[in-house]
């Protein structure tokens, strides 16, 4: 009982420390951005100090239209991310486990990957109109590659002895994926998810901005066209906060599903 | 809803459900009339249920109009000329907005007060920021330089979005900028000096932008196009004569702050297109090398 | 024989897809979806040597510089963050915050900081494609085998030697994954940076075509981007093969029948 | 039933070319317990991996249950020399043992019982809920053995399965393997470095030569079927056989 | 010189709490060769990891060369039980052996010579250019031993270093370790499961009890310093000592 309590307190202690440090990092960053315009490193009219941005943010939070935009953005983001993740993992595992298919599709993939989503804007608009659907297609297109490549590399990382073990015990292909390939690639998938999350967010915003589907991006465009510099930065800060929240979520999931992994076990490390 | 629609009378087929119309616009003051007209009911009384969607620019609006997602769109005149000359199936339906025609325009060419640039001809060998290259801005600025006696082909242009221009000018990254409202107010507030009103120099009472549709819609539903045009003309006329209402409506779809809105110079909104100015733009586009041959202006305009 | 089948494997699917596109789009009336044959015509017409010198090479140069800086920065920072838990706690939220910034809204800030020359564009490329390298490096460094770490510690292998022979090598498969991810991202960011404030470059040209309603020319530019992607990925694969020889040897073993 | 005919295996790659197995021919009849000894690096693990269908032969043929091996044959279990890496770090000990049974589609309760029994047999009942990396080397190795036993294979290949356990546990495990073999009539190929162990366990000891590997000696162990750590090991015949194997090993080692 | 005072180590995490070392006190004087035997999972590896400064003790103190251990002490080398994983897969065999020397700042030619010598001593001169994963288990283990020897440590900790090699090679390596010990006056702590080996090698055998671990017996091996595989092992005193250790092991194993 005592031991359990001690252990819990040690873990929470560490977590507390990491949260404090993280907050400290953000605070330092904000402080730097407060000081830089004030001492004239950047022109104050075009790069407002943190305090002014926060004031604008406070005003935004009071507007209903901001919250509708936020919800729109969140919906597109989450939906696009889910589709990209599922498609990326399924196709990635397939490609990773079937060398022939992988070789046959390699060129096509390398061709498609560097095509910028923004260059596809006219095409998606012709196909889906200036709607959320168009933005969603861009989001999925960009985020999918992030997941896919991570998964393909993760699948290739299976330990040969573990793989032989699974083969020797005649685990079915499905069981091999489920019990060997998937756990091995999970750390890669999580990194893929983190990359995809921010790419998806970026494209949600960009799509809204360029295409004009409703959301934070459209608000940013509007504010830019109106020369409302502080509002622009306040909205950018909102996207940043979304990014931080997404990361907190992944870290949380990671601690659950990767407790066995060397990167998270780390229990008995010398203090040195 | 094919009934005849004489001026000012609501559409005869009032019983029929109104036509849903989507129009793509840019969230700038130029499109205030369509917002105002919608609010005043000029569209609904012609049985048009108008939805306005803003986008960053032509990149999104033109494909949407051509694919039929939008029925109408707003675009600047030079873009439309470029489209026409590349056989884009689009056609202008109505005037958009014009320069004021006098020196106090809604857009202007600005330099730093201590730059030693006194008039447009001094821009020879210098760099000017334009929000998009090979478009109406550089064409107009060249016109200013030419009018002032300089060689327009010696002016360099660099692309820079409007919101970045004042900062870049202040920091000395460019020698001159061409900004529209509300950035013009920002330039003035920053103490920048205006050396020309290039839209005014490009042509008298220049038509800067217009509303357009696809040729397909004109073929399929000429009546709708006609009603939209009428409503639009009414809106333009109303906006042109009700400046205060315009300033208020701008506050609803942009984030321009109240004091700036009060000070801004508004464009002109005549209901008829200034065909001569479009012709002049087309000519200039050829001179400046934007186009190899003069587009079919008559085919573009209604 | 092996060579023939490998080449077939490499180009088989693309050929099928191109053929489908070619016949599927033949005689297309759609303004924004021209036929592949007209795109090909435009390609030949547009991408002359002069055009390469004026528009493509400057782009590629910025791409290269930006990519190299991004990889170096990502590995260096990732090694640091992956090794020290407190550094990670301190920096992670800030990095996640920055990571969520869309490049299109970032360009203005970059212009403020470094003007409108090549530097801004390189900055945008670095900022956009450092993340996959950084994240993968962090995870690679964190996930290294403990027995190897212990070996290093007990034999007094510390400092740069440890960095070179343990930290970076152990993470190198994952670093390579990140670098691979970053490559097409760099191309994308090259285009985006040139779409915002530029006077030359591939992205600029594609955008000009789009604005000028030269749609086949625009698609030919997109095609060119894809081709550049393929070429760079082939180069990357060569580099990877020599850097990760041990890894592929160990993983593949002699299993293939 | 195992048959190895003119097996030849060359490793080639990364600047190194090694003939791991020169020319190997032998067969193990159904239900036999055969031990393999040979110098380090002579190709024992390679042989086992070829038999298990994990590695293609360069030339020659290998049959398990009269079928040429091209993929892992059914009913065959392997205990790998790299026991640590053959356990899945993301599964707990019990799950590691149960996984092959689950893959066979065995019901949850049955495989639970089998796994518990196998873990008890190797003395690890306590550790069933631990992750492999929480165990000592010897414990990990015993988990790998438990997994193979719970699988109830027809053919069992074991690669130095007792290398990491202490003398007492080793003796217990030896008796365990013998009893499993007798109970289920498994065909068993057992690689070991311990000559006493080879003689004590098997019906037959195959001594391999150093690389390029061939069969240096094939010795039938004519000790009684009922064996016992104390009496068998002090048997005069045991000492004699053990001496023969030892002499042979030293002979094959000498030229290398 | 090693001192272990009231060492106590508890592993706690992932739903498992194990007292690996109960209360351990002993010391090994400078230059002594001490062997440690004990049942599987009794905490031998844990003890070595604490001594090497890789793991903090839960309580108690550990001194190497009179300095309390808080980080890996200088001049100390370890041969890990998980030999395979302790080799760098991206370095060739020679580079693996040379790396610690490089860390010490030794000149290239010197460390080349040392590495070559150490590899020759373990019989791996041929394999210097191979990657570890191209080697057999026993060969990998010998690379790990060569690395420790080339390092010329003042204190050497070895965790079942001969588990994966054949009997003949094992005998050779035993003599090699003894000669290295005699030549350089190394303080040596040697964990093994082979009782004969413990008695043959050491000046002293420490028998550990099963978990929670304590010293069950501390036996001085009063065999002559000059040892020899044939004569020493057939010595009557050898048989007697070995019997004592064996009896003790069986005693400590019984209650577990
Ligand atoms: N994956 C591999 N790639 C290249 N060579 C290999 C590979 N695996 C083994 N070898 C080589 O093949 C030979 C035989 O190796 P093998 O592992 O079969 O020996 P072994 O008899 O099991 O030895 P040990 O008793 O030490 O485990 C060795 O020389 C080894 O270096
Ligand atoms: N990383 C770890 N986390 C949790 N428990 C551990 C860990 N390492 C070892 N243990 C536990 O500590 C005990 C002692 O393990 P240790 O590895 O020291 O044994 P050992 O004497 O070396 O055994 P062997 O001879 O089998 O190698 C075991 O019960 C084991 O399960
Ligand atoms: Mg082997
Ligand atoms: Mg151990």
Describe this structure in words.
- The complex is a heteropentamer, with one copy of chain A (272 residues), one copy of chain B (302 residues), one copy of chain C (257 residues) and two copies of chain D (256 residues).
- Chain A has helices at 2-39, 50-61, 64-97, 99-112, 121-128, 132-155, 160-168, 173-211, 216-225, 229-257, 262-265.
- Chain A is mainly alpha-helical.
- The longest helix of chain A is centred in the last third of the chain and has 39 residues, at 173-211.
- Chain B has 302 residues and is an alpha/beta fold.
- Chain B contains 13 helices and ten strands.
- Chain B has helices spanning 32-40, 58-66, 77-85, 136-147, 162-170, 183-189, 198-202, 215-220, 222-241, 243-253, 258-263, 275-287, 297-300, and strands spanning 19-25, 48-54, 72-76, 90-98, 107-111, 127-130, 156-159, 176-180, 193-196, 207-214.
- In chain B, helix 1 (32-40) packs across helix 9 and helix 1 packs across helix 10.
- By secondary structure, chain C is mainly α.
- Chain C contains eleven helices and no strands.
- A six-stranded mixed sheet of chain D has the order 6-7-8-3-9-10, with helices on both faces. A four-stranded antiparallel sheet of chain D has the order 2-1-4-5.
- Helix content of chain D is 39%, strand content 25%.
- In chain D, helix 3 crosses helix 4.
- With 256 residues, chain D is an alpha/beta fold.
- Chains in contact: A-B, A-C, A-D, A-E, B-C, C-D, C-E, D-E.
- Chains A and C meet through helix 1, helix 4, helix 5, helix 6 and helix 7 of A and helix 1, helix 4, helix 5, helix 6 and helix 8 of C.
- One magnesium ion (MG) is lined by residues 44-45, 81, 159 of chain E.
- One adenosine-5'-triphosphate sits between chains E (11, 18, 20, 40-46, 81, 211) and D (133-139, 164).
